[in-house]
Amino acid sequence: MPELEKHEDTRLEDASGVVHEKPEDIELSRDEGLIDKKAERKLLLKLDLAILPMTVLMYLSANLDRGNIGNARLQGLQAELLSGSDSKYSVVLLSFYITYMLFSIPGTLLSKMVPPNYALGAGCLIWAVAASCMASCQSYAGIIVCRLFIGVGESIFGQAVVLHYSLWYKKNEIATRLAAFIGAGVLAGAFGGLIAYGVSHIKSHIETWRILFLIEGCPSVVLGICVCLFLPSRPDRSKYLTETERELEFLRLRSQNLDEGNNGIDWNGVKRGFTDWKSYVVTFIYSCMQLSLSSLSGFFPTIIKSLGYTNAEAQLYTVPPYAVGFVFMILVNFASDRTRLRGPFIILVFFINVLGFVLLITVVSNEHARYFACFCIVIGGYCTIPLIQSWVSNNSGSQSQRAVHLGMLNSLANWAALTSPFIFPSSAAPTWHLGFGLNLGFSCAAILVTTIMILYYRYENSRRDEVEGGRPLQGQKVEQARLHDLAPGFRYTM
């Protein structure tokens, strides 16, 4: 086994100025060389077949149950239950984000405290019941209460799935799978439009928006029960793996220092998550994306309708942008995993977002150009999600630090989503200069800040190379569980 060069100085100073003792002999792992690649591919396929379908269906369900409010608006919800008031509709949208933000960090840490399948399943059941109950609401207050509970359920689920993936997959395997996961949200936009279009043609004494809530809410209840019963929990306790497969999985995780052997909460990791300045900077980038995402969730059918379509046609014409966004998301995140880069792809997607909002602001009479812009903003609103989540997962040294930072993406980044319900008033159609302008400005800010973070990570990796006498050897044991991203040997993904 090759040995690392030893230095007379036995101490290492990390980026925060904290000095750690450098062990006289740095332990190297042979795990990478022991992995049978054919067996690993077979194991990955088995994991994908068990984990991806359920988590993808959960995200599809969550986005349908969260986003159907925009479709229901065009089918009479606002006129019949909210007295046609734009401000009341905005408050209904806002109510979801209140609980979603408050419970995101505790909700993500819950998957560290209890088996993840129970935590995720419980979240699914909460939002599913609440979404189904919206069909029976008879008052403005009732709709708000249901939306609050949908926010609670999704806060337990949202970023916890990213944490769950990091328990099973290596760093360069996460983004592609997150793209499939988040891609379900893009497909939800497409399916939501198709379902809403079909429901709008139902002839019944029951309002069509109530039927829409029932059709999209009730199946999620069954899904939540299935998640509790069948989703693999953690590698060390899941009955889904044979003992041979379990050992192979441990070898895979140890080869990238991802096997912490600790299922509880490490409060030092929690502290590191809250005190690391990088957490807040990357969270700001995520908030720029959240403004576009929340704008799409509440107003995309309305924006499409402003191009000159009827209510029913607007539901249908939301489908192609979401379909193209899904394909683009898979391709760009696959490329990100292959190149092991996150930041440059984040910049690329935000540039597409900028193009879309520039067109919407500057072009008013050309419907084809504005419809093309709708494709751009769907790509910009969704495709950065798995890229940023993977960036956070890769650059968090321990599971507890990762859980806090992932939770912060929802709890802090959604300040932008709080503004979106109020920046697209009906009176401003079809230009919506305020809504489009704010989205454009924050997308430009995201490009600038992402560039700064790429340069910082490059600088910090080079500094650590110099201090530690070179890049860490492949398979080198790094004390990430104890020292998090400050551990000697840890390097950031750019």
Automatic annotation (TrEMBL):
GO terms for cellular component: membrane. This is MFS general substrate transporter. The keyword Protein biosynthesis does not apply. One of its GO terms (molecular function) is transmembrane transporter activity. It comes from the Eukaryota. Keywords: Membrane, Transmembrane, Transmembrane helix, Transport. Signal peptide: none annotated. The chain crosses the membrane at residues 43-62, 89-111, 118-141, 147-166, 178-199, 211-231, 280-304, 316-334, 346-364, 370-392, 404-424, 436-457. Residues 51-463 form the Major facilitator superfamily (MFS) profile domain. It is found in: Membrane. It comes from Naematelia encephala. SUPFAM superfamilies: MFS general substrate transporter. It is a multi-pass membrane protein. InterPro entries: MFS, MFS_dom, MFS_trans_sf.
